[in-house]
Amino acid sequence: MSEPCVIALHLRSSAQLFNSFDPSPFTERDLDRDAAEYIVSSARECHASQPLVLRLHLDEATGADLQTAVCNYFAYREELSARELREHLRIARIAMLIGLTTLVLGHIGSTWVAATWPGHLGEVAANALLIGAWVAMWRPLELYLYDWWPIRRRTRLYHRLATCRVETVIG
Prior knowledge:
Layout: E1 5-11, H1 33-45, E2 52-58, H2 66-116, H3 120-135, H4 138-147, H5 149-162, E3 165-170
Parallel strand pairs: 1-2, 2-3
Protein backbone atom coordinates (compact mmCIF):
# COMPACT_ATOMS: atom_id res chain seq x y z
CA MET A 1 0.00 0.00 0.00
CA SER A 2 1.36 3.41 -0.89
CA GLU A 3 1.96 6.33 1.45
CA PRO A 4 -1.26 8.31 2.09
CA CYS A 5 -1.71 11.75 0.63
CA VAL A 6 -2.47 14.12 3.50
CA ILE A 7 -4.68 17.13 2.90
CA ALA A 8 -4.18 19.53 5.79
CA LEU A 9 -6.71 22.21 6.68
CA HIS A 10 -6.11 24.70 9.50
CA LEU A 11 -9.27 26.02 11.19
CA ARG A 12 -10.10 28.01 14.30
CA SER A 13 -13.18 25.85 14.87
CA SER A 14 -15.05 23.08 13.12
CA ALA A 15 -17.79 25.60 12.23
CA GLN A 16 -15.44 27.12 9.64
CA LEU A 17 -15.61 23.87 7.70
CA PHE A 18 -19.36 24.11 7.12
CA ASN A 19 -21.73 26.38 5.24
CA SER A 20 -23.17 28.65 7.90
CA PHE A 21 -26.47 29.09 5.99
CA ASP A 22 -27.23 25.36 5.86
CA PRO A 23 -29.89 24.55 8.52
CA SER A 24 -29.39 20.77 8.24
CA PRO A 25 -28.23 18.66 11.18
CA PHE A 26 -24.47 18.83 11.69
CA THR A 27 -23.49 15.53 10.00
CA GLU A 28 -25.64 16.37 6.95
CA ARG A 29 -24.51 19.95 6.39
CA ASP A 30 -22.83 21.23 3.28
CA LEU A 31 -19.18 22.08 3.54
CA ASP A 32 -18.16 25.69 3.09
CA ARG A 33 -17.62 26.30 -0.64
CA ASP A 34 -14.02 27.49 -0.21
CA ALA A 35 -13.14 24.61 2.12
CA ALA A 36 -14.67 22.04 -0.24
CA GLU A 37 -12.88 23.58 -3.22
CA TYR A 38 -9.56 23.47 -1.37
CA ILE A 39 -10.08 19.83 -0.37
CA VAL A 40 -11.08 18.78 -3.90
CA SER A 41 -8.22 20.66 -5.60
CA SER A 42 -5.74 19.20 -3.11
CA ALA A 43 -7.11 15.69 -3.70
CA ARG A 44 -6.73 16.16 -7.46
CA GLU A 45 -3.00 16.67 -6.92
CA CYS A 46 -2.69 13.28 -5.21
CA HIS A 47 -2.05 10.16 -7.24
CA ALA A 48 -5.17 8.02 -7.75
CA SER A 49 -3.54 5.02 -6.04
CA GLN A 50 -2.75 6.97 -2.86
CA PRO A 51 -5.22 6.75 0.00
CA LEU A 52 -6.45 10.15 1.11
CA VAL A 53 -6.29 11.52 4.65
CA LEU A 54 -7.97 14.78 5.56
CA ARG A 55 -6.16 16.24 8.55
CA LEU A 56 -8.07 19.03 10.28
CA HIS A 57 -5.99 21.23 12.57
CA LEU A 58 -8.38 22.89 15.04
CA ASP A 59 -7.61 25.51 17.68
CA GLU A 60 -10.32 24.12 19.94
CA ALA A 61 -11.76 20.68 20.66
CA THR A 62 -15.06 19.75 19.13
CA GLY A 63 -17.55 17.05 19.98
CA ALA A 64 -18.74 16.88 16.40
CA ASP A 65 -18.33 13.78 14.25
CA LEU A 66 -16.28 15.39 11.48
CA GLN A 67 -15.54 12.04 9.80
CA THR A 68 -19.25 11.40 9.22
CA ALA A 69 -19.99 14.98 8.21
CA VAL A 70 -17.17 15.16 5.62
CA CYS A 71 -17.91 11.68 4.25
CA ASN A 72 -21.65 12.43 3.98
CA TYR A 73 -20.93 15.62 2.05
CA PHE A 74 -18.63 13.96 -0.48
CA ALA A 75 -20.91 10.89 -0.80
CA TYR A 76 -23.70 13.33 -1.70
CA ARG A 77 -21.41 15.06 -4.25
CA GLU A 78 -20.49 11.63 -5.66
CA GLU A 79 -24.17 10.78 -6.13
CA LEU A 80 -24.82 14.12 -7.86
CA SER A 81 -21.86 13.54 -10.16
CA ALA A 82 -23.02 9.99 -10.94
CA ARG A 83 -26.47 11.39 -11.83
CA GLU A 84 -24.81 13.98 -14.05
CA LEU A 85 -22.94 11.18 -15.85
CA ARG A 86 -26.15 9.18 -16.37
CA GLU A 87 -27.90 12.30 -17.73
CA HIS A 88 -24.92 13.03 -19.99
CA LEU A 89 -25.04 9.51 -21.44
CA ARG A 90 -28.83 9.77 -21.93
CA ILE A 91 -28.33 13.00 -23.88
CA ALA A 92 -25.51 11.33 -25.84
CA ARG A 93 -27.85 8.48 -26.85
CA ILE A 94 -30.48 10.95 -28.07
CA ALA A 95 -27.85 12.97 -29.93
CA MET A 96 -26.49 9.79 -31.52
CA LEU A 97 -29.99 8.81 -32.68
CA ILE A 98 -30.48 12.28 -34.20
CA GLY A 99 -26.99 12.19 -35.74
CA LEU A 100 -27.44 8.73 -37.28
CA THR A 101 -30.88 9.68 -38.62
CA THR A 102 -29.38 12.82 -40.17
CA LEU A 103 -26.52 10.77 -41.63
CA VAL A 104 -28.88 8.26 -43.24
CA LEU A 105 -31.19 10.98 -44.59
CA GLY A 106 -28.19 13.00 -45.81
CA HIS A 107 -26.80 9.98 -47.65
CA ILE A 108 -30.19 9.21 -49.21
CA GLY A 109 -30.64 12.88 -50.15
CA SER A 110 -27.12 13.04 -51.58
CA THR A 111 -27.71 9.97 -53.73
CA TRP A 112 -31.05 11.34 -54.95
CA VAL A 113 -29.60 14.80 -55.76
CA ALA A 114 -26.64 13.25 -57.62
CA ALA A 115 -29.02 11.12 -59.72
CA THR A 116 -31.59 13.91 -60.28
CA TRP A 117 -29.30 16.87 -61.06
CA PRO A 118 -26.53 15.87 -63.40
CA GLY A 119 -23.52 18.16 -63.71
CA HIS A 120 -21.46 20.25 -61.35
CA LEU A 121 -24.39 21.83 -59.53
CA GLY A 122 -25.83 18.41 -58.62
CA GLU A 123 -22.40 17.14 -57.58
CA VAL A 124 -21.82 20.17 -55.32
CA ALA A 125 -25.28 19.85 -53.77
CA ALA A 126 -24.84 16.09 -53.22
CA ASN A 127 -21.45 16.61 -51.56
CA ALA A 128 -22.84 19.43 -49.41
CA LEU A 129 -25.63 17.14 -48.15
CA LEU A 130 -23.14 14.36 -47.41
CA ILE A 131 -20.70 16.67 -45.61
CA GLY A 132 -23.54 18.21 -43.59
CA ALA A 133 -24.73 14.76 -42.59
CA TRP A 134 -21.24 13.78 -41.38
CA VAL A 135 -20.87 17.07 -39.50
CA ALA A 136 -24.14 16.25 -37.71
CA MET A 137 -22.32 13.24 -36.21
CA TRP A 138 -19.60 15.43 -34.67
CA ARG A 139 -21.33 16.30 -31.41
CA PRO A 140 -22.78 12.82 -30.69
CA LEU A 141 -19.34 11.30 -31.19
CA GLU A 142 -17.76 13.99 -29.02
CA LEU A 143 -20.29 13.26 -26.25
CA TYR A 144 -19.59 9.53 -26.39
CA LEU A 145 -15.84 9.62 -26.92
CA TYR A 146 -14.58 12.52 -24.81
CA ASP A 147 -17.04 14.60 -22.80
CA TRP A 148 -17.88 11.96 -20.18
CA TRP A 149 -14.28 11.53 -18.94
CA PRO A 150 -14.15 14.63 -16.69
CA ILE A 151 -17.51 13.72 -15.13
CA ARG A 152 -16.34 10.16 -14.41
CA ARG A 153 -13.03 11.45 -13.03
CA ARG A 154 -14.90 13.86 -10.71
CA THR A 155 -17.21 11.03 -9.55
CA ARG A 156 -14.20 8.87 -8.67
CA LEU A 157 -12.54 11.74 -6.84
CA TYR A 158 -15.69 12.37 -4.78
CA HIS A 159 -15.80 8.65 -3.97
CA ARG A 160 -12.21 8.77 -2.75
CA LEU A 161 -13.04 11.79 -0.58
CA ALA A 162 -16.23 10.15 0.73
CA THR A 163 -14.20 7.17 1.92
CA CYS A 164 -11.12 9.03 3.18
CA ARG A 165 -9.95 9.04 6.76
CA VAL A 166 -10.51 12.30 8.65
CA GLU A 167 -8.05 13.09 11.43
CA THR A 168 -8.53 15.89 13.93
CA VAL A 169 -5.51 17.57 15.50
CA ILE A 170 -6.22 19.96 18.38
CA GLY A 171 -3.88 22.81 19.21
